[in-house]
Amino acid sequence: MQSARFVWKATGLAVLLGLGAAWSCPASAQGLSVDPVVIELPAGKLAGTLRLRNGTGKEHLVQLRAFVWHQGLDGRDQLSPTDDLVIGPPLVRLGPGKEQVVRVLLRAPVEGERAYRIVADRLPEAPKGGQIQVHLTLSLPLFAGVPRQKDSAEPEWGLVPDGKGGSFLTVRNRAGVHLRFDALALRGGTGAYVEIPSNGSRYVLAGGERRWSLPPGLTLAPGQGAQVRFQMRGKTIETAVSRRSS
C-alpha cells in the first residue's frame, strides 16, 4: 500500500475519480481523512485495510462501495458495481475526532493485476431549515494481484491521426501493472516542451491505452519528429515518439 493521507474538505461538492491528479489538499484537522489513498494487494494477498478519521466537530455517516475499474481511450474512468470485494463495515458512523479501520477483502485470487475503485460517500444529513446539504464522494484506487516482481516494460508512445488534420498523443501500457504519470509534456523537433493537461486520471491500467489531444499552440508538421517527457516512478524520462496509423 502507498502510505499517504487524503483529506475531505468539510464544505463543498467533490466527485473525484482521478485521485492524485485532481487533488493536492494539505492535511487538515478540519476535515475527514482517509489513509492510504491507494491500496495495493500483492499477488496471493486477499485483504487490506484503510483508516477513516473524522477531524471535524460533528458526526458524519460514510458509505463505502466497491467497483471494477476500466478506462476509455480518453482516460475517463468507467466503474461497474462488483461483489469481488467485501468491505467491512460498509457503513461507518464517525463521531467527532473518531477513527475507524475498514477491512477490504478480495473473495478469490485474481489472475494478473486487476483494478478496482473503493468509492466512499459522506452521506448528507436530513435537511434543516431549507439548507442545502453537502454530499462528498471520494474514489480510491485498489489494485489486486499486483506482481511481486513488477514488469519493467516501458510505455509505448505514438502519434496517431485525430481525423481533423491533427494528431493524438497515445501511450500503450504493455506492462502487467498499472502506470501513473505525474507530469506529461510534448515537443516537436527542437522546440520547447508544452505541458499536456491530464484530462482526468493520470493512470494507465495494465494492458491499457490512453490518448490526449495536443494542447493549443503545439502543432506538428507531417513527418516531423516529436519527443515526450514524463515523470514515472519518481524519474523524469524523455523519449522519441513514433507515428502510427492507428
Summarize the structure in words:
The chain has strands at 6-8, 15-16, 32-35, 39-42, 47-54, 60-71, 77-81, 85-88, 91-94, 99-106, 114-122, 136-146, 156-161, 167-172, 179-180, 183-188, 194-195, 203-204, 209-213, 226-232, 235-243. It has 246 residues and is an all-beta fold. The relative contact order is 0.18. It is built from no helices and 21 strands. Helices cover 0% and strands 48% of the residues. Strand 20 and strand 21 (235-243) form a beta hairpin. It is elongated. Strands 2, 4, 6, 7, 9, 11 and 12 form a 7-stranded mixed beta sheet that branches. Residues 1-30 have low confidence and may be disordered.
Protein traits:
mainly beta; 0% helix; 48% strand; disordered N terminus
What value does the average pLDDT take? 81
Series of H and E elements: EEEEEEEEEEEEEEEEEEEEE
Count of DSSP strands = 21
Radius of gyration: 20 Å
**Helix-residue proportion:** under 10%
Structural class: mainly beta
Unreliable residue runs: 1-30
- Which range does the strand content fall in? over 45%
Largest sheet: 7 strands, mixed
Distance between the termini: 36 Å
Apparent shape: elongated
How many helices? The count is 0
Topology diagram in text:
Blueprint lengths: L5 E3 L6 E2 L15 E4 L3 E4 L4 E8 L5 E12 L5 E5 L3 E4 L2 E4 L4 E8 L7 E9 L13 E11 L9 E6 L5 E6 L6 E2 L2 E6 L5 E2 L7 E2 L4 E5 L12 E7 L2 E9 L3
Parallel strand pairs: 2-12, 4-12, 13-21
Antiparallel strand pairs: 1-3, 3-5, 5-10, 6-7, 6-9, 6-11, 8-10, 11-12, 13-14, 14-19, 15-18, 16-17, 16-20, 20-21
